Amino acid sequence: MKDALLATLIEEYSTVEAFASILMLESRALTAVSPLEQLPSIVEKKTELIGVLAKLEAARDTQLAELGLPAGWSGMELAASTDARVATQWTLLQKAAERARRANTNNGELIRVRMDYNQRALAALQVNVPRKANFYGPDGRIPAHSGL
Asked: What CA–CA distances, in Å, run from 64 to 15, 70, 109, 123, 135?
């Protein structure tokens, strides 16, 4: 039974590493002048990997239950305390997850900075210029109140 848990942990680790790699690509895209060509495929791959990770986590929790252990972190800590192979893989998975978490936090900050910049650029473009007489309106006509 622990062999199945170990196999799931190895697959989960591999998937988290792939996710972290995608996050690094996303980071490069977010710092590019024009990221729009790259981001859709990155988001698609991230979504796919999140789905895989959710399935692996559910499988891990099922395997823990079959071993008579609680689901989640506490169950993994108990399983790791009784098997060195599981402990090693669990440690690797935790480190990979932490790297992915930091990369994701960094990307969130890059997105926030880019959005802030875009908001300020839009605000600068939307400055209300006082309307002067004889200026054409959006319909191409001089407004009636202009005195003409």
From this structure: 20, 6, 36, 54, 74
- Going along the chain from its start, the domains and CATH numbers come out as 2-126 (1.20.58.300)
Count Cβ atoms below 10 Å from residue 10 Cβ, excluding itself.
14
In the block, residue with structure tokens 């799931």? 8
Distance CA 22, CA 8 (A): 21
Q: Residue 103 — φ and ψ, nearest 5°?
A: -65, -40
Distance CA(144)–CA(11), nearest Å, equals 72
> For 26-44, how does the pLDDT look when each residue is reduced to its tens digit (9 = 90+)?
999 999 888 888 999 999 9
DSSP string, 87-125: HHHHHHHHHHHHHHHHHHHHHHHHHHHHHHHHHHHHHHH
* Rounded Cα–Cα distance for residues 6 and 63 (Å): 10
Average pLDDT, the chain: 90
